Amino acid sequence: MTGANGIYELLFFVKDSRRLEKFRKQVVKTEADNATKSNDQIERTFWKSIKLSPPLYGADVPGSLMKKGIPWNLSELDTCLEKGLAETNIPGVTDPYLYFGAWKTIFGWHKEDFDLYSINFLHHGASKFWYSIDLDQNAEFEQFVRKKLPELHKSCPEFLRHKNTLIHPKVLLKAGIKLQKIVHNAGEFIVIRDSAYHSGFNAGFNIAEAVNFALPHWIKETAPFVSFCLCRKDNVTINIDDFLKRLKRKRKRVEPVEKKKRGRPRKQEETSSK
Predict the structure, then answer these.
(1) How far apart are CA 242 and CA 248, in angstroms?
(2) What residues pair up with 133 in beta bridges, in sequence order?
(3) Phi-psi map region of 163: left, alpha, beta (phi>0 left; psi -120 to 50 alpha)
(4) Distance (Å, rounded) from C-alpha 212 to C-alpha 114?
(5) How many helices (H) and strands (E) does the chain have?
(6) CA atoms of 199 and 205, how far apart (whole Å)
(7) Residue 218's Cα: distance from chain center in Å?
(8) What tens digit of pLDDT does each residue of 139-196 get?
(9) What is the spatial distance between Cα 230 and Cα 242, in angstroms, rounded to a whole number?
(10) Is residue 19 part of a domain?
(11) Is residue 226 situated within a structural domain?
(12) Does residue 67 fall inside a structural domain?
């Protein structure tokens, strides 16, 4: 963690994989005693100690902990995203990722890949704290980070997609940027709107599951205007023209049927399913 005055850059190091039992024992040793603290106290402790004791995060693990056939199963979502991508599976986007958090594990400010919607379920453990910029404040937020971090913007105009930037909510509020905060508890879902900037941290050991999805609004209002990070090979891209073609091919045509009433045929109507 580098930076000061509420604006930080995160530096990630990839560590060797380990079994869950070993990870759990390691992170418990460094956990703060948050069981008796209020949410406000936990949040203050996080920001005060943010540059101390770098946390270990078991992030981006392919898989799902949900039983097949249950409502809201994140591995069985059937939205226009799956239909438009046809047989293409993208880990973490169409297929869920699991996240094994610990005290102070962080996700920096970012939008989802291709500005999609996302849904996050907290299976077990400590709470997850979320911050999200109001959608009508996106331009102001982007202008603020460009001004505060000009070198990063110069090297990559979409540097926020790297998820390396963390900014204290009070710094943003002072700059006139509106945002929301919510505490996510075990057994709850959090849904992130398309194009929504968000960040946050974990209050202790927990297990979460997340995946992306799309709605018709995303196809019309968001997808055509998405900007990409071009400096990273793992950047998710979707050919929107091919995506729309696949959706159109899946539309079923219903042949018109002439109906009669009192000896007079009704005007034929041609419909198609949406």
Answers:
(1) 10
(2) 179
(3) left
(4) 10
(5) 8, 16
(6) 18
(7) 14
(8) 999 999 999 999 999 999 999 999 999 999 999 999 999 999 999 999 999 999 999 9
(9) 20
(10) no
(11) yes
(12) yes
* Amino acid (1-letter code) at residue 112: E
Planar angle of CA 3, 134, 109, nearest 5 degrees: 30
Domain holding 174, by residue range, is 2-11+41-253
Percent of the chain with pLDDT over 90: 70
- Compute the distance between CA of residue 127 and CA of residue 179 in angstroms, rounded to an integer: 19
Q: 26 lies in a domain? A: no
Report how far apart the first and last C-alpha atoms of the chain are (Å, whole number).
Answer: 48
Return the CATH number at 201: 2.60.120.650
Contacts of 243 (CB under 8 A, 6+ apart): 84, 85, 219, 223
Long-range contacts, 217-221 (Cβ 8 Å, 24+): 218/80, 218/115, 218/116, 218/117, 218/194, 219/80, 219/84, 219/243, 219/244, 219/247
pTM, entire model: 0.86
Q: Which two tokens stand for residue 233?
A: 């090979």
pLDDT at res. 167: 97
Strands (E) located in the chain = 2-4, 7-9, 58-62, 97-101, 106-110, 117-125, 128-133, 165-167, 179-184, 189-192, 198-202, 206-213, 253-254, 260-261, 264-265, 271-272
CB 131 within 8 A of CB 169: yes
pLDDT in tens, 198-213: 999 999 999 999 999 9
Whats the size of the chain, residue-wise?
A: 274
